[in-house]
UniProtKB/TrEMBL annotation:
Organism annotation: Pluvianellus socialis
Signal peptide span: none
Subcellular location: Cytoplasm
Keyword Nucleus attributed: no
Any one of the GO BP annotations: centriole replication
Protein name, UniProt field: DEUP1 protein
Length: 169
């Protein structure tokens, strides 16, 4: 995209240089036109023949036509230059908008990532706490199971003694 902007700027500079050349040519033609006018005035005094005046007037008219054509060309080039400038401006605005959207998205994703990191840390703390509680409960149940097995064993021993005593009685 930067290359496009650079290319457009170069083209804009080229159009600007062309514009300046045309203006310089217009100034030169205008100076030449003024010289021609002076020459015409001098010739009008010196030349008495109408045909030579008509030729000079035709030349002057041709120069005026050339000046008008150059002015029209200059106007057309000015319009093209303005179009290019507007296009570059729109492209730059679009690029800035895209950059802002990207920055906003990155900021949003960063915030989301931060929230997820906090959530993960909270879950890890809870998991650690639950793991400790589970270990304590397993230890307590192991102790209770051991006590129950011991009580079952004693019960069987007592029951067996009772049966033995009943048989003896």
């Amino acid at each position: 995209m930067e290359a496009d902007f650079s290319e457009m700027r170069n083209e804009l500079q080229s159009w600007d240089a062309l514009w300046r050349r045309i203006q310089l040519e217009c100034q030169q033609l205008h100076a030449e036109f003024l010289k021609i006018r002076e020459y015409e005035d001098m010739q009008a005094i010196q030349i008495k023949h109408q045909s030579s005046c008509v030729q000079f007037a035709e030349q002057l008219e041709n120069k005026n036509t050339e000046l008008l054509l150059l002015a029209q060309s200059q106007e057309h080039q000015r319009e093209e230059l303005n179009k290019i400038r507007n296009h570059i401006y729109r492209e730059e605005q679009s690029h800035r908008s895209e950059q802002e959207r990207t920055k906003t998205q990155i900021s949003g994703l960063t915030e989301e990532l931060h929230q997820k990191e906090i959530t993960i840390a909270t879950i890890m703390e809870k998991a650690s706490l639950l793991e400790r509680q589970l270990k304590m409960e397993v230890a307590i149940k192991d102790k209770l199971l051991a006590k129950q097995q011991l009580l079952d064993f004693r019960y069987k021993v007592i029951k067996s003694e009772n049966m033995h005593l009943k048989e003896m009685v």
